[in-house]
Write a structure and sequence with these properties.
Length: about 375
């Protein structure tokens, strides 16, 4: 039996296959809908969302909730995976090697879901394009559905957008969730999830954020790709817009003090030699203030584990080696050698104050664990909520 989370679709979609919720262009609309579980298992209560007229950069107005009966929450963190180019004489590209290992791990540990930290679709050839152009782009099938098979095709991919996703029609990735396949979970570029699992009803809070507006200095961007123009079109390049998003992040972190675990998911790293700090340092300050357990990111094509400083409660994980590898940004704590491909595997037991993690080297079909560790929960740093 699948350990499936609450996935959300409208009753219209459930009962009338011809009806879908479309999020169109720059004027995406969150419809007034009754949200239920597509997998029809371990259903909590349905959630009715208010109607909100907004672009995809508007944070989703309510937290998504999911429940798991089992006492272990298991997930894989994967980033920068959409590069499916094969070398001369190779039957499969690097992306397939990683996908094969992920499926093996998912079956072995009964993994619940994938945390997708972005850069989901790269330009794979001279005739190809960055990102996706629409919800019907062939790359949805060739770079995602046809690659991540088996157990990986049965679970949700909780996603954020990377810079390569912004280089084309980032709206199409949100549209795809609403109108095509909500297993690619991206209802907005900013959203909150609550996972409750085990007999203890252990609470895990997740903030999924778009870091493209915080990482780059807009004035320094060139017009060689669509990132600069897209940021301008969505009006998220201004100081006012950035402050608004920082306020939303702080407000939603403050709401999660009763969570045993608080995780933030973004695309860009917070620390390391490659960070274009801009407003990323302000994010780190917020995470430390509200005792975030861990921040998961990609962008640098490495596997890396760091702490900003010894006294910081925030563990920083970079898992950006899903299909490409590079020298990246060496960290002071631990990082894989150049050229390594792979992913991060995380396991949390409901009655434990520690989460276990391991980095998996999947450069070849003989995948192996290359680093293991444990991280203390948010409850270690916060007094228990009354």
């Amino acid at each position: 039996m699948l350990r499936a989370p609450l996935m959300f679709i409208s009753l219209m979609t459930m009962y009338m296959s011809i009806a879908t919720f479309l999020v169109i262009g720059l004027s995406s609309i969150f419809k007034n809908s009754l949200i239920t579980n597509t997998f029809a298992q371990k259903v909590n209560t349905s959630i009715t969302y208010p109607e909100v007229n907004a672009s995809i950069t508007t944070p989703y107005p309510k937290a998504f909730e999911e429940t798991y009966a089992d006492s272990i929450l298991d997930f894989i963190v994967l980033g920068d995976w959409g590069f499916n180019r094969k070398g001369t004489g190779e039957k499969h590209g690097d992306q397939v090697h990683v996908a094969f290992a992920m499926d093996s791990w998912a079956k072995r540990y009964n993994t619940n879901f994938i945390i997708n930290v972005g850069d989901s679709f790269y330009k794979n050839s001279k005739s190809d394009h960055q990102g996706v152009e629409s919800v019907d782009d062939p790359k949805w099938k060739t770079n995602w559905i046809d690659v991540y098979k088996g157990k990986l095709s049965e679970m949700p991919w909780y996603s954020v957008a990377g810079n390569h996703d912004w280089y084309n029609n980032v709206t199409a990735q949100v549209d795809y969730y609403w109108s095509k396949n909500n297993r690619f979970f991206l209802p907005s570029l900013f959203y909150v999830r609550i996972s409750v699992f085990g007999p203890e009803k252990t609470k895990v809070a997740w903030l999924h954020i778009d870091t493209n507006i915080f990482y780059y200095k807009y004035e320094d961007l060139t017009n060689k790709n669509l990132l600069k123009s897209n940021l301008q079109n969505f009006d998220v390049h201004t100081s006012k817009a950035i402050e608004s998003k920082l306020k939303w992040i702080e407000e939603n972190l403050a709401l999660q003090k009763d969570a045993k675990w608080i995780f933030v998911v973004g695309h860009h790293p917070l620390i390391g030699d490659c960070v274009k700090y801009q407003h990323m340092s302000r994010l780190l300050s917020l995470f430390e203030m509200y005792r975030v357990t861990a921040y998961f990111a990609g962008h640098s094509h490495v596997l890396e584990y760091q702490y900003p400083k010894p006294s910081s409660p925030v563990a920083i994980f970079t898992s950006g080696a899903g299909s490409r590898s590079s020298s990246g940004c060496p960290g002071k704590d631990w990082g894989m050698p150049v050229g390594t491909l792979g992913f991060l595997h995380v396991k949390i037991e409901s009655n434990s104050d520690e989460m276990s993690f391991e980095f998996v080297d999947a450069t070849t079909y003989k995948a192996k664990v290359v680093f293991q560790g444990k991280v203390n929960s948010t409850s270690i740093w916060y007094p228990k909520a009354k």
